[in-house]
From TrEMBL:
Any one GO MF annotation of this record: transmembrane transporter activity
Keyword field contains Transcription: no
TM regions (residue ranges): 37-58, 222-241, 247-272, 306-326, 332-352, 359-377, 410-434, 556-580, 586-619
Function: Choline transporter.
Pfam families in alphabetical order: Choline_transpo
Protein source organism: Cyprinus carpio
Keyword Transmembrane helix: yes
Identification of the protein by name: Choline transporter-like protein
Keywords for the protein's UniProt record, in alphabetical order: Membrane, Transmembrane, Transmembrane helix
Amino acid sequence: MSEVRRSTSSSYRPRSSWIKRPKREWKPLEDRSCTDLPWFLLFTLFLVGMCGICGFTIMTGGAARLVFGYDSYGNTCGQRNEPIEGVRLSGLDHTDRKFVFFLDPCNIDIIQRKIKSMALCVSQCPTEELATYHDLKRFAMINGSELCSYELPGHKYPQLPERFEKCPKLPVPESNALPVFNRCTPVDISCYAKFAEAVVTFVSDNSMLNRLIAGVAASKEIIVGLCLLALVLSMILMVIIRYISAVLVWILTALVVLGSLGGTSVLWWLYIDYRMTMNETMTKDLRETEEPIDDMKTIKDHAQGLLIYAVSATVFTGILLLLMLFMRKRVALTIALFHVAGKVFIHLPLLALQPFYTFLALSLFWVYWIMVLLFLGTTGNPEKNEDTGLVEFRLTGALQYMTWYHAVGLIWISEFILACQQMTVAGAVVTYYFTRDKTKLPVTPILSSVLRLVRYHLGTVAKGSFIITLVKIPRLILMYIHNQLKGKENACARCMLKTCICCLWCLEKCLNYLNQNAYAATAINSTNFCTSARDAFMILVENALRVATINTVGDFVLFLGKILIVTCTAFAGVLALNYQRDYTEWVLPLIIVCLFAFLVAHCFLSIFEIVVDVLFLCFAIDTKYNNGTPGREFYMDKALMEFVENSRRSMAMEERGRSKRARPKEDVELTEVKAMAPGTSSA
């Protein structure tokens, strides 16, 4: 019985040990299946809601009121209108009155950014300046366009007592109709001087502004040429950065080490010099007069502060040198990844066009979003403003939440478009990395990646972008509250708001990085978002030091690349603008060119950064599950293979050195045992 009990007890295992989580088997590009299908359906429903808002604004007349315009009584210009209850002069037939005319177009509310004047529908905008009420009468009689309120007859304008309130402010400026929106706009925009002054507050001298604008107008061809130069330089840099990355990395390392050592030395020198000067001054003053205790305490506090700074700098330098010592081998991995990334752009040249496609998609969506937002501004129930007496259209009840829905759509869909770019780039790079024979690559790996994204992984992209949206919305709300309460909240509340905003910003950046690697894992294994994020996170944690090295050194190298492009473009701009002797005319063109150059460099090098990050994830997976033996050959490029071989050699040399150091101790122990052996036997 005891044996049976022992056997049964030994065979018993906890239930948790029976069920083991299956180990993830990475099978690049082998199986494809739809991922996160519920999120794709949810995103599709959300898009239907966005289109429904646009359709609602069109069906309820909001789009027509924006395009054709409406008067202060709720009538849409250019069409027959239905009467509005409680609003006089509504429901008029304005079929022949297609233009909106403001009685006082210069009465602008700068804060609300809208014209506060009464608006009327007229058949023709004033084609000349009208200085008197007789001119208004003549214009109405000749052209049939009455510029006063509808109830006032045109032939009686000069005699009516209501002309001061219901006729336009004199003189009426010459106006032209806008091409699409049919608003009468003054030809001479001098009446908008106050508005322009509020917008262009950084210029106090009109002559300076005129000279700057004249410089831009005279240099427009040069500006376009320099912008194209920045574009070409960015594309060239992505290809040649693999040749100069090693130089940039080691220059960066040397500058950081020398800078930290130099800063620490300067701080110690300042402390010693201040200490010696303080001792001499205190000794001299004590001999002549007694120094007040407060002054002596202040001098000692200054010396103490310098000492703290010097010690802190010394500790920082020591930690930095240790990090450089331990991470020097991992810097070589960054250089190798940059080298391979340059090859990727040679084999996949269409990667360089990804910023154009993304910018085009974002621009089209933003134009649509702004258009629908303007439609929403003229949609809703007509309400009479008691202060101005004008009719305004406002969303009431549940309809007012459409604006919030539309705002969430701006963030989610924008993040979705950016995530599609990341998934497309990741899919193309994964195809390149895990194809052993590069001659068998698809004809257009970018197009193949886009087709895989559309067919299988739109749900994954929708889920990842929604997570970023959930973090971004609270941050934007807190930023809005902080701006609204500026100058009103106390210091503690301001500090808490800024802390929350900063924490959410950091969380958003971390999630962006994790999402990017999750998209790469999905491109490799065709797993859903959560599984891919977990697998990618485990790989990144196992290679934490390598990740830190690549993100710090690599990001700084790319930043230097951006500065290089901006500097070259600015230098070319100075040479091209040298014919203009007035240096003030250089300022605005150079600023425009430098901003555009930095924007272009950032867009292109951000694609390069995505390529490097995806290559690293592929490399980490390759080295974890393959060892170069038959049947488990590496997928990696020759440059990465050289890095692996060098790492193996260095590890083998270290193990050999440890074994040599351990051998003398073993020999000593053996001799002691042999020496003790005869005595033991005799005993």
